[in-house]
Specification:
517 residues, alpha/beta, 15 helices, 36% helix
């Protein structure tokens, strides 16, 4: 009935667009906030956030919404985030007591289910550490592990090749650091191959490509040292049994990682949602009246089902109305724990926004966890799964890395070159469905701010039904085959905050008149 009611809403006031592409390159200022721009006005496939604030929300009152960021932790001292971090007012800081009796001592700004641990195995590695039981799961794990190992080898070879090219260019220029422009202008013939290789890699990384090369090498090495290393057992540092959901007394109240830089990802996610608007610092968040609740449960590796299940429950029990989950994996041995947590969130009217994953896969075929179905039947209506968009409104609209799926991805949103906060008072462009998800979480928070009478499932379907439809074919997957955009996700649409808020207004009025809807 909820979906039917939405389909009956008047669509006359919603903005629709003919196909139009930005001809000129985006400026630096446009790149920093392209996800907030409007397709019709700016010829950029953003979410029309600026238009929504200017035309719909000006001088309108809102209710503060708590948004939980279940991630790698958040740098709560960042200049553009510290004013929007959630504080548990029922807890007395530093007294070593569980003042609010919620089961967590001194959880003033959230909880850290990983303690001092950070680097982790992939779930497939953890499965293969156990004896071979002959199951189909174990057989699949063997095949996937071999695939991951091969890809890690290729990544290491590419990183080594990039480092060799960088070293050659530094020797040629006789300087340790050089700019993108200096690289482009390099005319030495013997450097042409290295120059070409670095120019390809440095595209969209103009200010940081040298550091990114080092990071690529560290990432490749980390896959062998941690992700795929069957002799690596980091969970001992946490001190719990990850296979026992009732073993809950673990973690600490420090909501960022031991090395604060390891909370880089979660800090970026938090910034996309809530970095302060119009303060001349960094970028702008999507939502204007929210508090970010950091819940650290995602390591550098695959998350544990237990940590995610308990993190969702923590967020729900402590007042979050939207939860962003920019994480996921291909295996989930204790998926039921997470499913039960999702259903618990639904029972408490909490929306969960989840990233679709970055494997270029059709997740109708290659499953990606967590999801919201068991045996092909959807068990909850409060989880929305988000794929990533590029900033080009043409056949390359879907980001090359983004997962997709007509049944299991709900909607798409900007996820390439997204500018937001990172640790140590810095800002950075990042890409991934990890960035698309908080863009949608921000719009969901806006709806809940201004229309608090709407339920989580209503907000989910507003986000899907009010989006901008895309009528052309797009390239997807590793082979970049062309399919209709309508086949990439359930809705066949890109999230549009202006349309969503228009629809929310209409639904809010109707719901007040008829609360049973």
């Amino acid at each position: 009935m909820r979906i039917f009611f939405l389909s009956m809403l008047s669509m006359a006031a919603l903005t629709t667009y003919a196909q139009s592409a930005k001809k000129a390159p985006l400026t630096d200022e446009q790149f920093k906030r392209w996800s907030h721009l409007d397709l019709q006005t700016d010829s950029i496939p953003g979410m029309s956030v600026d238009k929504a604030y200017a035309d719909l929300l000006k001088n309108k009152k809102s209710t503060k919404v708590i948004v939980a960021v279940v991630d790698s932790g958040v740098d709560i001292d960042h200049e553009d985030l510290k004013s929007v971090i959630w504080t548990n007012k029922k807890e007395i800081p530093g007294n070593g007591k569980d003042d609010d009796k919620n089961g967590f001592v001194d959880d003033v700004h959230g909880w850290n289910f990983l303690g001092t641990s950070n680097a982790e195995n992939l779930e497939v590695t953890r499965i293969l550490k156990k004896p071979n039981d002959g199951s189909e799961l174990y057989k699949k794990a063997i095949a996937v592990y071999a695939e991951e190992f091969r890809e890690a080898n290729l990544g290491m070879q590419k990183a080594d090749s990039l480092m060799k090219a960088d070293a050659a260019i530094r020797t040629c220029l006789q300087k340790e650091k050089y700019s993108f422009d200096e690289l482009k202008e390099l005319s030495a013939t013997e450097m042409e191959a290295y120059k070409k290789q670095l120019l390809i890699y440095a595209k969209d990384r103009t200010a940081t490509f040298q550091q990114d090369i080092k990071t690529a090498k560290e990432t490749a090495k980390g896959k062998f040292d941690h992700y795929l290393n069957k002799n690596f057992n980091p969970r001992a540092a946490v001190g719990d049994n990850p296979d026992d959901i009732n073993d809950k007394k673990y973690g600490n109240n420090v909501v960022y990682s031991k090395e604060r830089g390891d909370s880089y990802h979660g800090t970026h996610v938090a910034g996309i949602i809530a970095q302060v608007r119009n303060n001349n610092l960094g970028g702008d968040g999507v939502a204007d009246n929210v508090e970010i609740m950091p819940v650290r449960a995602v390591p550098d590796g695959d998350e544990y089902d237990k940590d995610i299940a308990l993190a969702i429950r923590y967020a729900v029990d402590n007042g979050a109305k939207v939860i962003n989950g920019s994480f996921g994996k291909r295996f989930s041995p204790h998926a039921k724990w997470v499913y039960d947590a999702i259903k618990y969130a639904e029972s408490k009217d909490v929306l969960i926004v989840h990233s679709a994953g970055n494997d270029s896969n059709d997740i109708d075929v290659e499953r990606y966890y967590p999801d919201d179905e068991v045996d092909g039947v959807e068990f909850a209506d409060n989880l929305i799964t988000v794929g990533a968009l590029n900033y080009t409104y043409n056949e390359k609209l879907v980001a090359t890395f983004s997962n997709y799926g007509k049944k299991n991805v709900d909607v798409f949103a900007p996820g390439v070159k997204i500018y937001a906060t990172v640790t140590d008072n810095k800002y950075r462009y990042l890409k991934g469905t990890s960035m698309a998800s908080p863009n949608v979480a921000g719009v969901a928070a806006l709806i809940r701010e201004y229309y608090p009478n709407l339920k989580a499932s209503q907000v989910k379907h507003i986000l899907m039904n009010s989006g901008t439809p895309v009528s052309f074919e797009v390239k997807v997957g590793e082979k970049q085959e062309k399919i209709p955009f309508a086949n990439t996700c359930v809705s066949g649409k890109m999230v549009n905050s202006y349309n969503a808020l228009k629809m929310a207004e209409e639904m809010s009025v109707s719901t007040k008149k008829n609360p049973k809807l």
